[in-house]
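Let's study a protein:

===
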Amino acid sequence: MTLPEGVRRHDFDGETALATRGPPAYGEPTDGEWRRWDPRRSKLGAMLERGVETGLEGGETVLYLGAAAGTTVGHVADFAGPTYAVEFAARPTRDLLSVADDRGNLFPLLKDARKPETYAHVVEPVDVVVQDVATRGQARVALANRRFLRDDGRLLLSVKARSEDVTGDPEAVFDEAVETLSEEYEIRERRRLEPFHDDHLGVVAAPR
């Protein structure tokens, strides 16, 4: 697996971990200008640790759905180009704004990822959609936001089984989500994110 430019494995107190170069955002360990990227707090970080071929190279224009307080999207903005961060809840958005204060390429949007028409006037065509939205219909959210993705772009999606069906078999939930995604996406890779995140599936897909 190739890490994107701007992401590397760095030594933090004798332990090697993923890192990006940028201002600290959530109390993570740092070493000079390098900040540790904790895969237990980041689905995308877990995908990288699990060896998923994300196709990220660095410098891409990104739409991040489910940005929360900015833990992961802050790392993304460290190595990407313009990064649009969509978050529905007001409380974490306040923290997200603080992360964006130190990153001129990070643009927080207090919007609902299920309603892309509400931010379509702001977001330009993107190379990558990163999605971490804990709601029912996660695959449908990805379909709705396909409109922003360039034809040669890709989707990096984390499916949380318990958000879809708290009692259902996770593998059955994942299969259904992937089947729905296949309406508009070609699935390139799927991999569970244990031991970093229980009952989560990482998916890499490309527009059909």
Observations:
- The two ends are 24 Å apart (CA to CA).
- Helices lie at 43-49, 71-79, 90-101, 138-144, 161-164, 170-181.
- The chain has a mean pLDDT of 97.
- The CA atoms of residues 65 and 131 lie 5 Å apart.
